[in-house]
Amino acid sequence: MPGGTRAFTVARWIALIWVLTWFPLYTWFWGWKNMMHLCDVSVVIACLGLWFRQSLLVSSQALLAPLVGVVWSLDVLWRIVTGHHLIGGTEYMWDTHYALWLRLLSCFHIGLPVALLWALQILGYDRRALPLQTVITGAVLIFSRFLSPELNMNFVFQDPLLHRGWGPAPEHLTIILAGCVAVFFWPTHLMLLRAFPSAPSRHKESVQTGKKGMATDSVRDEEEHEAMLQTALREARVGLAEGGIPIGAALFTREGKLLGKGHNRRVQQGDPSAHGETDAFRRAGRQRTYRDKIMVTTLAPCWYCSGLIRQFGIGTVVVGESVNFQGAIDWLRENGIEVIDLHSGECIDLLAKYVKEHPEVWKEDIGEE
Ligand SMILES: [Zn+2]
Q1: Are 86 and 9 in contact (CB under 8 A)?
Q2: Taking a C-beta distance cutoff of 8 angstroms, is the pair 8, 53 a contact?
Q3: What is the mean pLDDT of residues 316-345?
Q4: Distance, CA 282 to ligand 1 centroid (Å)?
Q5: Separation of 267 CA from ligand 1 center, angstroms?
Q6: pLDDT (tens digit per residue) in 339-351
Q7: Side-chain half-sphere of 181: how many Cα atoms within 13 Å?
């Protein structure tokens, strides 16, 4: 598995173990009503998202957790430094009725945002997170309103600034929800859109290609693609060891049989036409058809290699990453070729390091002056 994926597997297990430990403990000590806090609901959804590798769930909670984390940390720090709370809401951290270890569990307010932003680098940000998080928050607010007014859970009876109610329940809840969207979700959504690659919508891609039975939304397929990427990644490392640009590729059958593998040899052979994909393609030899073949490459294919993929009608392209170079993957998709971007952290790091150390060779390779 690629490094990014190996680290992700560890993160998934941490998320699972965390939610299975923290949730019962919190419910037991603070009571079930306390779990209706938006930030507690967020932990559960985020951990499920990490466990199931669901970019949409992770993205939706990334709209809430980072800002809440900052506000929570500021309030705690303010109390430590000045003895007073800046905004309030973290008084329980000093409530000695509860064991210190239990209160310290609340440090998830710092850990969760870090974990979510890291995961977005691998899974990509799903723009549907904004409507989803708005619906989740709306539902939690409505439910909270049925709890006691003294709890003022999620400010459903009194707003956090003026501490007043804004008319009957529907009006007040609408104002609180609008405030959440305007202050938290919408600005964060815009930032995440800019900062992270967009999550591939697997379902949409399969529909676009219109090839029944070639849909790639099962976990098994994902694991197979990751295993195939390993072959390309090994080639990339061989290229690097030879003093070349670390980009590797391999051609597989749909059943997973390796037909040919190769890597960029521009530097090694002084051949500007020897890209990872062309190298793997040539080494695979003649094939009767390419429709049922999978080209796996550590980096999104350039125009030259995309032309090759289009020319021979290779059905599926699995790319390790499209962060260092976007290539022509949109064009491939427009032409009905299934493109799966694995957002591998290992592929990103390997090439990014090389580009930083050899900017001139890299520019030459992608045809920039
Ligand atoms: Zn190329």
Answers
A1: no
A2: yes
A3: 91
A4: 13
A5: 14
A6: 999 999 999 999 9
A7: 17
* Catalytic choice (205, 224, 235, 277): 277
The answer to whether residues 304 and 316 touch, using CB atoms and an 8 Å cutoff, is: no
pLDDT in tens, 68-91: 899 999 999 999 999 998 888 888
Q: Answer yes or no: pTM beyond 0.70.
A: no
Ligand 1 center–CA 66 separation, angstroms: 38
* Residue 10 identity: V
Place of tokens 């990427």: 229
Three-state DSSP state, 369: coil
Q: Residue 150 catalytic? A: no
Contact 312, 282 (CB under 8 A): no
* β partners of residue 263: 248
346 alpha carbon to ligand 1 midpoint, in Å?
Answer: 19
Decide: helix, strand or coil at residue 367: coil
Residue-wise pLDDT for 180-208, tens only, equals 999 999 999 999 988 887 775 443 343 33
Please report, for residues 131, 161, 190, 261, the alpha-carbon distance to residue 175 in angstroms, rounded to integers and kept in the order given. 17, 13, 21, 58
**Cβ partners under 8 Å of residue 316, min gap 6:** 214, 216, 254, 293, 294, 295, 337, 338, 339, 340
Paired strand residues for 316:
294, 338
DSSP per-residue string spanning 31-84: -GGGGGSHHHHHHHHHHHHHHTT-HHHHHHHHTTHHHHHHHHHHHHHHHHHHSS
Q: Which amino acid is at 288?
A: R
